[in-house]
Design goal:
nucleotide-binding; 7 helices; five-stranded parallel β-sheet; PhnN; Rossmann fold; ATP binding; 187 residues
């Protein structure tokens, strides 16, 4: 039986990387792989443990079919290595840090997709983005407005499970594991 693709999405600053780091060992115990994305961001950048490549390297990798999924967002290019298809075919569950804007295309390629939308209260999100110090106030305000639009449309979409990460991270880890174990209420 094929594994399932678990597609974690949410706004920048919602805590996707923190959640994945906190849940990593428990996910591995369940046989779930967490995919390392390829991003056109400097490897020295603070944030997720992604493979940083130049825009030129990314373009070559994409043209050579290195990615099962790829997209552009926030001035960067993102790729999910094509090895996920082998892992899924071998019956392994695979969790990727995906893109809300690329969800429709991902669903076309992976119809059995499990979508987890990590949410966070806007005030908490604002504080996290400010503390990160990567963006101007105008950029942060734009991200918050985009988040409000995405969250509104995705929260009511069929097959999207909500995980609120406004509180303690361990509670969010438990909710994540509950979703993967088939509990109906993730939030």
């Amino acid at each position: 039986m094929a594994g399932r693709l678990i597609y974690l999405i949410g706004p920048s600053g919602s805590g996707k990387d923190s959640l994945l780091d906190a849940a990593r060992a428990r996910l591995a115990e369940r046989g779930c792989r967490i995919v390392r994305r390829v991003i056109t961001r400097s490897p020295e950048s603070v944030g997720e443990a992604a493979q940083g490549v130049s825009p030129g390297q990314f373009a070559v990798m994409d043209a050579e079919g290195a990615f099962a999924l790829s997209w552009q967002a926030n001035g960067l290019s993102y790729g999910i290595p094509r090895e996920i298809d082998d892992w899924l075919a071998a019956g392994e569950d695979v969790l990727v840090n995906g893109s809300r804007g690329h969800l429709a295309q991902t669903r076309l390629r992976y119809p059995r997709l499990l979508v987890l939308l990590l949410t966070v209260e806007q005030a908490v999100l604002r504080q996290r983005l400010l503390a990160r110090g990567r963006e101007s106030l105008a950029d942060i305000d734009e991200r918050l407005a985009r988040n409000a639009r995405f969250s509104e449309s995705l929260a009511s979409a069929p097959g999207v499970f909500l995980l609120d990460n406004s509180g303690p991270l361990e509670r969010t880890v438990e909710r994540l594991l509950g979703c993967l174990d088939g509990q109906s209420a993730c939030a």
